[in-house]
Amino acid sequence: MEIEIEANIVVTESAIDPDAISKPISKLTKRRAKYNSRYVGGLHSLSMTDKAAWVRNTAGPLRIIEADTGREEIWFFDNNDTPTYISINSAGLLESHKKYNTHMPAIHYTRSDTPISNKKIRVFDSHLDLWYHNQKLSNFEGTPAINAGSRVFEIKDTKIDYIKYILFKTVEEDWEYGVWKNSRATGPSIIFTRDDLNTEPHRLKATQWINEHCKGGFYPFSDQLFGDKEEEFMFVADICT
């Protein structure tokens, strides 16, 4: 399946590897018996601010458990010292709890990573939210299974050494009980290996070049980034030299 998210920019698979996220999360849930716990009457009767304040005053991850149902949220700090949570059911499986009439994400990161930091660029995820049902990614009542902002993806094409990352302003994906169905993304831009190419005007120029000239397709999440080798050669000549 090919989905054109912008002129000549094509997605053929999910932008996010769910195993890369769920496996470390599963390790976290298996250790939860060792964490501090607080029992509450209603898990969603508390504000995010209150929960964040609790975890800041706790050494290590904090379990906030709903007394009647056994469902819980595990709160901890991400790489940027920002409160983050995952929600699980009474069996310890990732589960998107329902808050009134809205399914909350089972995994919620805010500013979850800073893969690039130098004098010219500073990029971070504004958020990453994932919805799960019975340990599988899935949409809920019109809500996409994945909603991310300012996401940076390392390219998979090992033959290309002049591009390091692709940055998207937003990424949304539809999943149906663990099966990827659709992706939507905005604002794709290239982050080059060379720092001198990493200016906003130059990244805009690179995206415009792909939109206008890359008729063979540009595949940001595939093992072969350019669908046409001759177009890749022209891209390097026009943009990277």
- The assigned structural class equals alpha+beta
Which regions contain 5 or more consecutive residues with pLDDT less than 50? 112-122
Shape descriptor:
elongated
H/E element string? Answer: EEHEHEEEEEEEEEEEEEEEHH
Number of helices: 4
Helix content: 10-25%
The figure for the number of domains is 1
Q: DSSP strand (E) fraction? A: 25-35%
How would you characterize this protein structure?
By secondary structure, the chain is α+β, with helices and mostly antiparallel strands. It has one domain. Helix content is 20%, strand content 34%. It contains 4 helices and 18 strands. The strands form 5 sheets. Strands 3, 4, 5, 6, 9, 12, 15, 16, 17 and 18 form a 10-stranded mixed β-sheet that branches. The chain has a two-stranded antiparallel sheet with strand order 1-2. β10 and β11 form a beta hairpin. The longest helix has 14 residues. About 5% of the residues have low confidence.
Structural key phrases:
241 residues, two-stranded antiparallel sheet
Any chance you could write out the topology, listing elements then pairs?
Layout: E1 3-6, E2 9-11, H1 18-30, E3 36-40, H2 48-56, E4 62-66, E5 72-77, E6 83-88, E7 98-99, E8 102-103, E9 107-109, E10 116-117, E11 122-123, E12 127-130, E13 132-133, E14 136-137, E15 146-154, E16 163-176, E17 179-186, E18 189-192, H3 200-213, H4 229-239
Parallel strand pairs: 3-4
Antiparallel strand pairs: 1-2, 4-5, 5-6, 6-9, 7-8, 9-12, 10-11, 12-15, 13-14, 15-16, 16-17, 16-18
